[in-house]
Amino acid sequence: MIKGIGIDLIELKRIQNSMEKNKRFVERILTQKEKEVFISLQNSRRKVEFLAGRFAAKEAFAKATGSGIGKLSFQHIEVLPNEQGAPLVQVQGYEAYNIFISIAHSREYATAQVIIEEK
Questions:
Q1: Where does Mg(2+) bind (predicted)?
Q2: Binding annotation for Mg(2+)
Q3: pLDDT digits (tens, 9 = 90+) for 47-69
């Protein structure tokens, strides 16, 4: 049974501006494991896309729960690639649920959709 659906869309330029203005922005959004992937990316554009995708994914998850970011922290939500590169999400306190996620990028935007389902 589906418990929630969330979607988010973010401008890449907004994320890039936040990264440039606030050095702690990346630390606030990404978990340690996500930062390791972020740092390994060679291209600055790809770093912006990665961060924007994770931001959108975490916002979409929070929307799917019905609570939004506030009760949840960006640090409670972790989105890492599986062996094929597809995103997998793990969330503290939501281990009893199946969580499905999709992230996409365009030249100007990143978007993510999350579905939370009872196991």
A1: 8, 59
A2: 8, 59
A3: 999 999 999 999 999 999 988 77
